[in-house]
Amino acid sequence: MTAVLDLLTLALRPGIGPRALRDLLGRGPLADVRVTPEERRRAEEEMKKAEGAGARIVSWDDDDYPHLLRRTYAPPPVMWVRGTLRREESAVAVVGSRGASPVGRLAARAMGRDLAAAGLTVVSGLARGIDTAAHEGAVEARGRTVAVLGSGLARLYPRENARLTDRIVEAGGAVVSEFPMEMAPDPGHFPRRNRVIAGWSKAVVVVEAQTKSGALSTARTAAEEGRDVYAVPGHPSQPNAAGTNQLIRDGAALVRDASDVLSELGLSPSLVQPSLFAEGETLWAALRADAPSSVEELHERSGRAIPDILGELTALELAAKVKRLPGGLYVRN
Predict the structure, then answer these.
(1) Per-residue DSSP letter, 326
(2) How confident is the model at residue 294 (pLDDT cuts 50, 70, 90)?
(3) Cβ distance 124 to 134 under 8 Å?
(4) Residue 253 DSSP SS3
(5) What is the pLDDT of residues 107-138, one digit of tens each?
(6) Residue 275 pLDDT exceeds 50
(7) Of 294 and 227, which is predicted with more confidence?
(8) What is the mean pLDDT of the chain?
């Protein structure tokens, strides 16, 4: 406890970040760093706030501090944690646009669900859109997911995800932050959050992103740390596909679903649950002439990746085998 308190005391100094703290500690033993009584009092109060909220503070010296994160250039010296940490785990980040399309949210939800069901930890940033969908998918699979915040645990952002954080913890996951309990969200915090997401994970999957997106910041940080970067492609006419398509052009692996991610990681795609379509049944055969189906319904019924469904529907429409109706519904011709 003393070592955590000592590190926390220094981490709470105004203007000091992880790199500056690392440089400070590189000059000599932690015990030789002078602190004021006021700094110590502030750290003790912060520990009490965390305990009162059912959280704890861990340092980079603790046994359950994530191993991959500790190996990064500037790991958080301390983290505020609700839930369970694991020193060793296979984690994949799933990130993307806050203003995600319905199709993007479905793809992220399926990605989170299938990766978690395959035994991987899904890491994301709890933001609206893609991040939220990925966490929800992992929780649906009763799998493990980690939400990394850009604010303190007591200043949850966005607030509507409060129940989701409870579900994450109840499912054996964790909600973590490198910011004090009552720290408000600030634009400058999110690049720091993104580096934690990237450092926690073996690979980063970007589902949807515009050309100027925090998800691309996460992808860049992952590449700098030697982690894999994957991207889900999108139609060139869609703004949210511009960033992911650019990542693929720059060398990121193209992935359509969790099976592709598992293959890229050298794991068996069979870990993903098989399609719910009958053997040999085509998408066209699954459609009906008298009852329109949405892309979401076809995805839920089939388990197929959203990009695959959209591509096949486009081909069938061009061949005049299906008709697209208002509202994104499809019927057989």
Answers:
(1) T
(2) confident
(3) yes
(4) strand
(5) 899 899 999 999 999 999 999 999 999 999 99
(6) no
(7) 227
(8) 89
Taken in order 244, 249, 251, 254, is the CA torsion positive or negative?
A: positive
Distance of alpha carbon 179 from alpha carbon 191, whole angstroms: 13
SS (HEC) of 111-180: HHHHHHHCCCEEEECCCCCHHHHHHHHHHHCCCCEEEECCCCCCCCCCHHHHHHHHHHHHCCCEEEECCC
Q: 121 vs 238, which has greater pLDDT?
A: 121
Residue type, 97: S
CATH numbers and ranges of domains, the chain: 2-83 (no CATH), 91-271 (3.40.50.450), 283-332 (1.10.10.10)
Burial annotation 198-209 (CB, 10 A radius, 16+ → b, else e): bbbbbbbbbbbb
Count CA atoms closer than 13 A to 270's CA, side-chain side.
1
Distance between CA atoms of residues 11 and 39, nearest Å: 10
3-state secondary structure of 78: strand
Q: Which two tokens stand for residue 315?
A: 């081909």
